[in-house]
Write a structure and sequence with these properties.
The complex is a heterodimer of chains A (78) and B (417). With 78 residues, chain A is mainly alpha-helical. In chain A, 56% of the residues lie in helices and 0% in strands. The longest helix of chain A is centred in the middle third of the chain and has 15 residues. Chain B has 417 residues and is an alpha/beta fold. The chains are: A mainly alpha (78), B alpha/beta (417). Chain B: One of its GO terms (molecular function) is 3-oxoacyl-[acyl-carrier-protein] synthase activity.
Chain lengths: 78, 417
């Protein structure tokens, strides 16, 4: 697992209080990991802080799975 | 329209002197102080370095990790206290009509720690408003009753009362009236507060409201004593299940007491100072007697607001003499804040619970830490000093007054068919 992926995973485990094993690439924040709308906003903000990036609202709307978050951040950090 | 009778069928408490009803009562009758040096933050720069914190409370014992992050301490206390009260009431949550169960909850401030920490974070940043999405929903005072209803599915009336230190007394009176009028069968009521934070201590210190007896915290809350020097900040929650009498009887509920009335008034005088003649306090007790259908001579005990401030204590006792006349000296007057400290918005609830338990046990908890008589206080009044007193109690009253001049008083009566 890439460094980015493991840091993303750690944030999700911490913020959503889920088990590490559940945080798989295709897992959806809301459908699989129990996040509500507020949790999702908080996750995006934590990603921004952790990776020192800005994720505009219209792009944040497209980040709904673990894999999408990792890809977005990897792209942004290139 | 005939008003319905309302009874208390469940109690819950999370206080600085006990984390449930039985521990709370045990400490009350043994005159235990909840005051100690503050553990939550470094107090070296603070004028007052002690408070009545909750002891041995680990939120993770009650909530999962995600819930803990979503709940300010005042909301955690609300859920813990109300859970105990609901369980104690024996209400079957699978059977009860949840549209007929409401929650009215008092909090004087709400999520002060959440507010403080979010603003500190913001101030440390570059001005970009990066506030946590849980900031507002964790902080607002009404999130406590909101969370109680979400947890149990109660779909009746639901809101918070905010009247500073009278908040939970106002909540109980509103809950009483909704049942009286037939809007609900059951109301979960009470209050919670968690203001032992830098902002809370610093703010109250600036008002010169808090005791600064740092060398002897346990002796600091000393209502009616000549050397009292301010209140001791407390925290926690108290919950009562109020229920329509026939509803309670039909399900064979145990009944602690009948809630017979409430009084409300305002000083209309000053933001924080009590009226020197206690006119609002006189009015609130008269209102409560009238609303409860009582004569002054009927009252056996009064759990006073009695915060241990120089002005407030004297004004309240003068008002009691004015309202009750000669009978005042027959009343067991006490202040359980001498033990719990001042729980602000939760005070009315935890003190009403103390009054109900006193009635149940025919034993009045003491006003501890009394050493020196205050010459401004009539020595004929029985202030239940330092030791509990046995007393058959038919009617108990509980006073609470809040900054802003809000006064509320609730009356309980021993259950009679």
């Amino acid at each position: 697992m890439s460094d980015i992926a493991s840091r993303v995973k750690a944030i999700i485990v911490d913020k959503l209080g889920v088990d590490e094993n559940e945080v798989v690439t295709e897992a959806s924040f809301t459908n699989d990991l129990g996040a509500d709308s507020l949790d999702t906003v908080e996750l995006i903000m934590e990603f921004e802080k952790e990776f020192d990036i800005q994720i505009p609202d219209d792009q944040a709307e497209n980040i709904s799975t673990v894999g999408q978050a990792v890809s977005y951040i990897e792209e942004a950090k290139k | 329209m005939e008003l319905k009778r309302v009874v208390v069928t469940g109690l819950g408490a999370l206080t600085p002197i006990g984390n449930n009803i039985s521990e709370y009562w045990d400490s009350l009758i043994h005159g235990k102080s909840g005051a100690a040096p503050i553990t939550y933050f470094d107090t070296s720069l603070f004028k007052t370095k002690f408070a009545c914190e909750i002891k041995n409370f680990n939120a993770n014992d009650y909530f999962d990790r995600k819930e803990v992050r979503r709940l300010d301490r005042f909301a955690q206390y609300a859920l813990v206290a109300s859970d105990e009260a609901i369980l104690d009431s024996g209400v079957d949550l699978n059977v009860v009509d949840k549209y007929r169960v409401g929650v009215i909850w008092g909090a004087g401030i709400g999520g002060l720690e959440t507010f403080q920490n979010e603003v500190i974070d913001f101030a440390k940043g570059d001005g970009t408003p990066r506030f946590n999405p849980f900031f507002i929903p964790k902080m607002i005072a009404d999130i406590a009753p909101g969370n109680i209803s979400i947890k149990h599915g109660f779909m009746g009336p639901n809101y918070a009362t905010v009247s500073a230190c009278a908040s939970s007394a106002n909540a109980m009176i509103d809950a009483l009236n909704y049942i009286r009028l037939g809007y609900s069968d059951i109301m979960v009521t009470g209050g919670s507060e968690a203001a032992v934070t830098q902002a809370g201590m610093g703010g109250f210190n600036s008002m010169h409201a808090l005791s600064t007896r740092n060398d002897d915290p346990e002796k600091a809350s000393r209502p009616f004593d000549a050397n009292r020097d301010g209140f001791v900040l407390g925290e926690g929650g108290g919950a009562l299940i109020l229920e329509e009498y026939e509803h309670a009887k039909a399900r064979g509920a145990k009944i602690y007491a009948e809630v017979i009335g409430g009084g409300m008034s305002s000083d209309a005088y000053h933001m924080t100072a009590p009226h020197p003649e206690g006119i609002g306090v006189i009015a609130v007790m008269k209102n409560c007697l009238e609303n409860s259908g009582l004569k002054p001579e009927d009252v056996d005990t009064i759990n006073t607001h009695g915060t241990s401030t120089p002005l407030g204590d004297v004004a309240e006792l003068k008002a009691i003499k004015q309202v009750f006349g000669e009978h005042a000296k027959n009343i067991n007057i006490n202040s359980t804040k001498s033990m719990t400290g001042h729980l602000l918005g939760a005070a009315g609830a935890v003190e009403a619970i103390a009054s109900i338990l006193a009635m149940q046990n025919s034993l009045v908890p003491p006003t501890i830490n009394h050493e020196t008589a205050d010459e401004n206080i009539d020595s004929e009044l029985n202030l239940t000093l330092n030791k509990p007193q046995k007393r058959e109690i038919k009617v108990a009253m509980s006073n609470t007054f809040g900054f802003g001049g809000h006064n509320a008083c609730v009356a309980f009566k021993k259950m009679e068919e």
